[in-house]
Write a structure and sequence with these properties.
Elements lengths: L10 H12 L8 H13 L4 E5 L2 H10 L8 E5 L4 H9 L3 E5 L10 H7 L4 E7 L8 H10 L3 E5 L7 E2 L2 E2 L6 E5 L12 E5 L2 H11 L22 H10 L3 H19 L6 E2 L15 E5 L5 H10 L5 E2 L23 H9 E4 L7 H16 L2
Parallel strand pairs: 2-3, 2-4, 4-5, 5-8
Antiparallel strand pairs: 1-9, 6-7, 8-9, 10-11, 11-13, 12-13
Helix pairs in contact: 1-8, 2-8, 3-4, 9-12
């Protein structure tokens, strides 16, 4: 089976983790955690970094920092991971869904403007699948309208817009270091900000609200969102691999584009670049132009030994929303629905050779010819 992704750790990565284990630096308050925070904040050009247990936790902490109320609205793309929606609901605010561009799969400023209201308090800007959203336009708009910007750069490690790194645009930016990310700690996340107030409160939220003076007296029911020293040491080491990882996946993505170019009547390929970024191909996505064919194709690919993943299922169509009374205008979110129904991504990464890529192309080509 050719997996969608397989993590590969270098000998140096393993040695760095071993050295941490050898020093017994494994807890969530150990030195490797602060070193990972220091490395991350410097790389992403931020003043503060808070290591967390995963990217979803980073989103939840980010939303908690804003002290949002029930009628406060948070705009997010419908075409993204469920973590964004969960964080807003758990913060007690109201989610508002905007559509994304059909070609780049990212939200745009025009999408945000269509759903903005007097109750809009925050925007979650997500960089999707290897291309970046127009963070310059969106961040400027948010500043001019007194709207908080949460930047989800989980899929954009190393991505740069106008000389500025993704992860440095938001009032609060969040990262995921899951096993399939360009930088991984296995599981893990990071909250990045230039606000000392956000930083200090985030430290408290991640650590059960322990008071340094009266440790076991609590005024809040905060969570334990700590990252272990073992994970942090791997994350720090992974920065050494980042440029190589991006270079390799960019080459693989371009080779896929070359192979699949003859099938453009049947499939929509990812863009090599958009207005603000060059694709890093965190994943290589394909959208079938014929409706209701995706699932049959992916089932055939599994039988051929090729693992795939469907695209995000649109947030505004999630079954869980039946429990809530949110007002959703589904007619304005057609691109997200189209991508969710017809898109999937295929194996890419260091475990995929050119021979594998040619095999995957031929199998997809065969599937598209079959009735």
């Amino acid at each position: 089976m050719i997996r969608v992704f397989e993590p590969r750790l270098s000998l140096q990565n393993k040695l760095d983790v071993f050295l941490t284990l050898n020093k017994n630096q494994i807890s969530g308050t150990s030195k490797p955690v602060s070193e990972f925070e220091e490395k991350s904040k410097k790389y992403f050009d931020r003043d503060y970094g808070v290591a967390l247990s995963n990217g979803s936790a980073a989103l939840e902490v980010a939303l908690k920092l804003l002290n949002l109320k029930e009628n406060d609205e948070v705009i997010m793309p419908s075409f993204t991971i469920i973590s964004c929606l969960a964080a807003v609901i758990r913060a007690g605010a109201t989610p508002v869904f905007c559509d994304v561009d059909k070609r780049s799969w990212n939200m745009s400023l025009s999408d945000i403007k269509k759903v903005k209201s007097k109750n809009t308090k925050a925007v979650i800007m997500v960089h999707t699948y290897g291309l970046a959203a127009n963070a310059i336009e969106i961040s400027e708009f948010c500043k001019n309208n007194n709207i908080y910007l949460i930047e989800d750069a989980a899929e954009a490690h190393g991505q740069i817009i106008g000389g500025q790194k993704c992860g440095s645009f938001g009032d609060i930016s969040v990262m995921s270091f899951y096993a399939n990310k360009h930088i991984t700690s296995g599981e893990g996340g990071m909250l990045l900000t230039n606000s000392k107030d956000y930083y200090e409160k985030a430290l408290s939220i991640r650590n059960l609200g322990f008071n340094p003076d009266e440790r076991f007296k609590h005024e809040n029911l905060y969570w334990n969102y700590r990252m272990s020293g073992i994970q942090a040491s791997l994350g720090t080491s992974q920065f050494k691999n980042l440029n190589k990882t991006i270079s390799q996946k960019t080459k693989q993505g371009r080779y896929y584009l070359e192979l699949f170019s003859e099938l453009q009547n049947d499939i929509q390929l990812p863009l090599l670049k958009n207005d603000v970024s060059i694709n890093h191909f965190w994943v290589f996505g394909i959208v079938l132009k014929q409706d209701n064919k995706r699932d049959s194709v992916t089932k055939k690919l599994i039988k051929s030994g090729i693992e795939t993943r469907p695209f995000f299922w649109p947030l505004h169509m999630q079954p869980l929303l039946q429990k809530y009374n949110y007002q959703i205008n589904s007619d304005t979110i057609q691109n997200s629905k189209y991508l969710g129904l017809n898109g999937f991504y295929i194996p890419i990464g260091p475990h995929v050779s050119k021979k594998h890529q040619r095999f995957i192309f031929e199998e997809i080509k065969k599937c598209l010819k079959e009735k």
